[in-house]
Amino acid sequence: MTQKDSLAQAREEHFRLGEAIAAHDRAYYQEDAPKISDADYDALRRRYATLDAQFPQLADESSLSKKVGAAPAEKFAKITHAVPMLSLGNIFVDEELFEFVARVKRFLGMPPEAEIKFTAEPKIDGLSCSLRYENGLLVSAATRGDGFEGEDVTANARTIGDIPKKLIGSPPDIFEARGEVYMSLQDFAALNERQAAQGKPLFANPRNAAAGSLRQLDPAVTAKRPLKFFAYAWGEISRMPADTQLSMMQAFRSYGFIVNPLTILCDTAEQMLAHFRDIESRRASLGYDIDGVVYKVNSLALQQRLGFVSRAPRWATAHKFPAEKATSVVRDIEINVGRTGALTPVARLDPVTVGGVVVSNATLHNEDEIARKDVRVGDTVIVQRAGDVIPQILGVVLEKRPASAKPYKMPETCPVCGSAALREIDPRTGQADVVRRCTGTLVCAAQAVERLRHFCSRNAFDIEGLGDRQIAFFYEKGLIKTAADIFTLQQRDRTSLTKIENFEGFGKVSTQKLFAAIEARREIALNRFIFALGIRHIGETNAIRLARSFETFESLRETAHHATPGSEARQRINDIDGVGDVVAEAVADFFLEEHNEKALDALLAQVRIVPMEAVKSDSPVAGKTVVFTGALLKMTREEAKAMAERLGAKVAGSISKKTDLLIAGADAGSKLAKARELGVETIDEDAWLALIGGGGA
């Protein structure tokens, strides 16, 4: 297999995993009905990370690995987090722990032998919650939500005994404590006994029980549930009471919070790994569920320098416990058709419990994967949860293969529309695409429905009430065929003889709520609009990059129309830091397609695009395009770029007429010369630090 073949396969797998992550986000966060376990979900993210590490090109083309949570449910009022509640990156094997420590040092420009202290604490398997105190009194509580906006669960949080209603000691005037709401194993067992006695459904695990209990509309129900709370982080604070992670936890304890007593300070990666092993050995006796250990850089000053990357801090990671395995039987292999026409085989398994979680299906990715593992209907297979792909088939137990089992053959026609399903030849490599795709782009219902689902998804238009089931229903009825149809639905319903409210499963109230939800989304931020279009390789991260660079949709569209290979317009897209030629080509191809343009015109007649919300709008470099060149002495290049983006600047990779500022380090070369030629303002590293006030908080 050539490197190009490997990259093509990885890219397709990366995209399909992203679609799966998006679907599970909706089920887990919005519908309170997770279809896979937390470990399964983590492992999908893990596979993303594995592909990103093996193929750095994919890091700029993926997006769902950058996400945090999901939009808060409409049944709750919403609270905007003063400081975003982000998630954590994951590691799964010992080597990755050592690489995490080395990566932190590299980012900070430290030698490998430099000492950095880390805290290590159990990773509680519960529901994240942020508690805001003003003058020592609890004033609000919110779930994580999408990381920026969560559900208001204040009344429910007040019923939890572990959560102080009034802080003791001398806390800051404004203090946001963050931690995990969870349920002990003993209390969980007792709750399920009561549920069974009352003829009510049982909870799948303590995490689901805790989440369902905290997110009750009636606080009286929450009060009857035995919820607990561990504090481990913070949001907005008017006065920092300490300068290290560990001393912050000591401050939390002095204010009346319960902090996990198994949190320790480590000097080396070896000590961190030893604590991981110790916690793992004691896992069954703790009395509450954990799924790993979290490591955090102890120094808050270093945490500030390290900052964040997309959905996670650079200064922390979660070390997950190893995968667990079981065997099951493949009863069928079915084909799912995604919004890009990709045919993905899925193995349907006899339900099997793996580490306490029921697994009943596993993706097989593509026909090459099936052939490599030679998975057949009727085979007994080894199934693993957590690790690379979850649920993942590790291999076949050949001695148990029935004589009638035949090698699986991928269909050559789409199971949805009957169009030919082909493995296209890449003109650049001459190699067959690893994925078989339906050619019926304009007639395949699966592709249309999946595109509409993506359009309505939470990081796109986020239309409450237009979930998978509703979109499929409206498509089948012919009421929504395109994105623009969503926004004319109410108008058409007024003049229709068959009212939506008369369809089974709807009604007058739910229909009016749907129309109101659609109306509320007629205005959308530029980055969300770009993401909603479903352009190949444009996930959330690249949508943000394009929105920051072009500022208006008209500017992006006009540039893309002229972005032929080798053109100045194509180069402008290429020059966006982190984008590159693959993304630039995908953008150009999308806007050069005539039917896409017609669909865009119809959609733009119904919605209004507003600028992306500025980051650090009060920063002196917010909105400016900056370029770094030469050797920086007081920070690494990666650290400098992250700092600039945190302050709202656009970081480009090359000098152009649109560059506002060049920061030139030692031994600056051609970029400095070109900047002088174009009259671009140029400053050195010290002037840059002075301009931004040392980096800004």
Based on the model shown, name its key terms:
697 residues; alpha+beta; D-amino Acid Aminotransferase, Chain A, domain 1; OB fold (Dihydrolipoamide Acetyltransferase, E2P); 5 domains; 5-stranded antiparallel beta sheet; 25 helices; 26 strands; 37% helix; globular; disordered N terminus
Give the helix/strand layout.
Blueprint: H1 3-30, H2 38-54, E1 78-80, E2 89-91, H3 94-107, E3 118-124, E4 127-134, E5 137-143, E6 149-151, H4 154-157, E7 174-182, H5 185-197, H6 206-214, H7 219-223, E8 228-237, H8 245-255, E9 264-266, H9 269-282, E10 290-297, H10 300-306, E11 308-309, E12 312-313, E13 316-320, E14 324-337, E15 343-354, E16 357-363, H11 367-373, E17 380-385, E18 392-396, E19 421-422, E20 437-438, H12 445-456, H13 468-476, H14 483-487, H15 489-495, H16 508-519, E21 523-525, H17 526-532, H18 540-550, H19 553-561, H20 568-574, H21 581-592, H22 594-604, E22 608-610, E23 625-629, H23 637-646, E24 650-651, E25 661-664, H24 670-678, E26 681-684, H25 685-691
Parallel strand pairs: 2-13, 21-22, 23-24, 23-25, 25-26
Antiparallel strand pairs: 1-6, 3-9, 3-10, 4-5, 4-7, 7-8, 10-13, 11-12, 14-15, 14-17, 15-16, 17-18, 19-20
Give a written overview of the molecule.
The chain has 697 residues and is an alpha+beta fold. The chain has five domains: 78-88 and 111-320, DNA ligase/mRNA capping enzyme (D-amino Acid Aminotransferase, Chain A, domain 1, 2-Layer Sandwich), CATH 3.30.470; 324-400, OB fold (Dihydrolipoamide Acetyltransferase, E2P); 463-520, no CATH class; 525-610, 5' to 3' exonuclease, C-terminal subdomain (DNA polymerase, domain 1, Orthogonal Bundle), CATH 1.10.150; 625-695, BRCT domain (Rossmann fold). Helix content is 37%, strand content 20%. The protein is built from 25 helices and 26 strands. A five-stranded mixed beta sheet has the order 2-13-10-3-9. A five-stranded antiparallel beta sheet has the order 16-15-14-17-18. A four-stranded antiparallel beta sheet has the order 5-4-7-8. The longest helix has 28 residues, at 3-30. Residues 1-5 and 60-74 have low confidence and may be disordered.
